[in-house]
Amino acid sequence: MPTYTPKASEIERNWLIIDADGLVLGRLATEVAAILRGKHKPTFAPHIDTGDHVVIINCEKIVLTAGKAEKKKVFRHSGFPGGIKEQTFADLLEKKPEDAVRNTVRGMLPKNRLGRAQLKKLKVYAGPNHPHAAQQPQVLELDHARRSA
After folding, report:
1. Whose CB among 33, 47, 81, 121 lies 3.0–4.6 Å from 53's, allowing a Cys bridge?
2. Is residue 4 part of a domain?
């Protein structure tokens, strides 16, 4: 029996909204990465982008456990010698919460052109407003990603 490979015409893409208010960053990112890849669908194939579009709102209210916000460092490099910049994750969440969430999800996707295509289906917003109401997205509840303390 040959392995099933979904055709481009068979792929259905849904739009999902996730409210990140009070969610733990790592648990949210693993769920979102699986949805972007399409691992929740029976037609999943690792070499084809079968995932859904994900809109994350309220990412400024996301939490990190065990004091990681102050301990964890985020690095970026300008490309020039000595051009490395370092800041704590708390500073990044305060200044650019969208980038903090997007970079965390990006680290959990494949590091190739397929992963870059899957990341384009992720939309992240700091507040509760988003411009994707015309796509009629479904609201997805991630209760197991909530902080238990």
Report:
1. 121
2. no
Other Cβ atoms closer than 10 A to 50 = 23
> Would residue 9 count as lying in a domain?
no
| Structure tokens, 84 | 């490395």
At residue 58, the 3 state secondary structure works out as coil
Count Cβ atoms below 10 Å from residue 108 Cβ, excluding itself.
16
Q: Is the pLDDT of residue 148 over 90?
A: no
Give CA–CA dist 65/129, Å, rounded: 26
Tens digit of pLDDT for each residue in 1-11?
888 899 989 99
DSSP for 61-91, written as a single string: G-B-STTHHHH-EEEEE-SSTT-EEEEEHHH
Write the CATH number for 60. Answer: 3.90.1180.10
Domain that holds residue 132: 14-144
Asked if pLDDT for residue 149 goes beyond 70, the answer is no
Closest CA relative to residue 49, chosen from 139, 110, 138: 110
pLDDT for 2 equals 87
Whether 114 is in a domain gets the answer yes
Give the count of beta carbons closer than 10 Å to the beta carbon of residue 88.
15
* Closest to 58 in 3D by CA, of 93, 31, 105, 14: 93
